[in-house]
């Protein structure tokens, strides 16, 4: 059992799960032959980046950029493994393979967009423009205009998540997303990581990127209420300039809701994020949970080995100096 609970994070990939530790990142994927294979990467510690990640408001956008950069490598690895497994498909299944691969690429591309700053820009500027062109001529209240903009953003987000969740491959990705959450919850409750123990937990988790998405909508409505605009282009530019602030505040809200999840009344602050996760997670089967457990355990092993190596190196250096 862990002596100290570490707030680990992760993400679902094609036929697998990635977990990030303090010093390492591990992706485990289920190959077509039933075996589990892993991609193991050591995290690069850049002093000035680590410093920025300790500063409130700034740490949110830094973490977002860092997660997007590292997550892309794991998504690429999982996609390549999936493609290799599909190469042996027979001629009779060629059309099915083609369709499945197209669904996979579209789904991964769309999910990837949300993890990038570009995605945040698109989902910020498009609703602002639509709200201005369609509703502003008839709605004069600034507060109501901001609420309509937030409503449009929410509808677009929910619609697109629902649409991609209908494809078979993305359904499995969302199952692995659920498996990721179950493993983290089991670990945070000091459970032995067995399939049976992990399956007891919910697919929902307060500290999830899906929650972050909906918090950017809510926080955006509040922040934008303090700023006026004279035209649609003025409105769009204002939203763009305020985006780093909205991202930073949303990250702090996410941390707050996670810290308060066991406090009566305050636990409800995280409910909007949990509701959205009902679209982005599914109940995993035992094989998928097994993959998530394998990724998590290997990440923990490598993290501990990294610390031991550093301690040994430090001891040797001190001995040489004395």
Task: Annotate the secondary structure layout.
Layout: E1 9-13, E2 16-20, E3 24-30, E4 36-42, H1 47-52, H2 58-86, H3 94-114, H4 117-134, H5 142-164, H6 168-188, H7 195-198, H8 209-224, H9 232-259, H10 271-280, H11 286-321
Antiparallel strand pairs: 1-2, 2-3, 3-4
Helix pairs in contact: 2-3, 2-9, 4-5, 4-9, 5-8, 6-11, 8-9, 8-10
What proportion of the residues is helical, as a percent range?
Answer: 55-70%
N→C terminal distance: 37 Å
**What Rg, in angstroms, do the CA atoms define?**
22 Å
Major sheet details: 4 strands, antiparallel
Q: Let me know the average pLDDT.
A: 84
Strand order of the largest sheet: 1-2-3-4
Number of helical runs?
Answer: 11
Topology pattern, helix = H, strand = E = EEEEHHHHHHHHHHH
Given helix and strand content, the structural type is alpha+beta
- Bin the strand percentage: 5-15%
Q: Could you tell me the number of beta strands?
A: 4
Total discrete domains: 1
- Form type: globular
* Unreliable runs: 90-96
Q: In words, what does this structure look like?
A:
The structure is a single chain. The protein has 11 helices and 4 strands, in the order ββββααααααααααα. The protein has a 4-stranded antiparallel beta sheet, with helices on both faces. Strand 2 and strand 3 form a beta hairpin. Helix 4 crosses helix 5.
Q: Brief overview, please?
A:
With 322 residues, the protein is of the alpha+beta class. The protein contains eleven helices and four strands; from the N terminus they run ββββααααααααααα.
């Amino acid at each position: 059992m862990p002596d100290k609970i570490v707030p680990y994070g992760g993400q679902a990939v094609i036929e697998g799960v990635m977990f990030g530790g303090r010093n390492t990142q591990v992706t485990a994927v289920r190959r077509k032959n039933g075996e589990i294979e892993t991609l193991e990467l050591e995290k690069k510690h850049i002093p000035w980046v680590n410093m920025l990640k300790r500063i409130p408001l700034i740490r949110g956008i830094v973490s977002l950029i860092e997660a997007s950069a590292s997550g892309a490598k794991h998504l690429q690895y999982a996609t390549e493994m999936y493609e290799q497994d599909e190469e042996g498909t027979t001629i009779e299944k060629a059309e099915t393979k083609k369709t499945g691969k197209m669904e996979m690429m579209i789904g991964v591309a769309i999910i990837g967009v949300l993890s990038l700053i570009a995605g945040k820009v698109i989902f910020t500027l498009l609703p602002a423009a639509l709200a201005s062109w369609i509703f502003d001529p008839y709605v004069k209240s600034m507060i109501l205009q901001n609420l309509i903009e937030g409503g449009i953003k929410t509808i677009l987000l929910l619609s697109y998540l629902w649409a991609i969740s209908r494809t078979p491959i993305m359904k499995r990705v969302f199952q692995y997303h659920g498996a990721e959450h179950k493993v983290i919850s089991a670990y945070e409750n000091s459970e032995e990581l067995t399939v049976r123990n992990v399956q007891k937990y919910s697919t929902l988790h307060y500290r999830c990127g899906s929650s972050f998405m909906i918090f950017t909508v809510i926080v955006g409505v509040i922040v934008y209420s303090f700023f006026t605009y004279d035209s649609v282009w003025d409105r769009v530019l204002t939203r763009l300039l305020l985006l780093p602030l909205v991202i930073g505040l949303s990250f702090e809200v996410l941390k707050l809701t996670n810290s308060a999840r066991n406090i009566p009344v305050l636990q409800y602050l995280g409910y909007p994020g949990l509701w959205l996760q009902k679209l982005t997670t599914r109940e995993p089967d035992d094989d998928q949970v097994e993959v998530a457990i394998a990724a998590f355990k290997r990440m923990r092993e490598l993290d501990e080995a990294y610390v031991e190596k550093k301690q040994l190196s430090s001891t040797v250096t001190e001995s040489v100096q004395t």
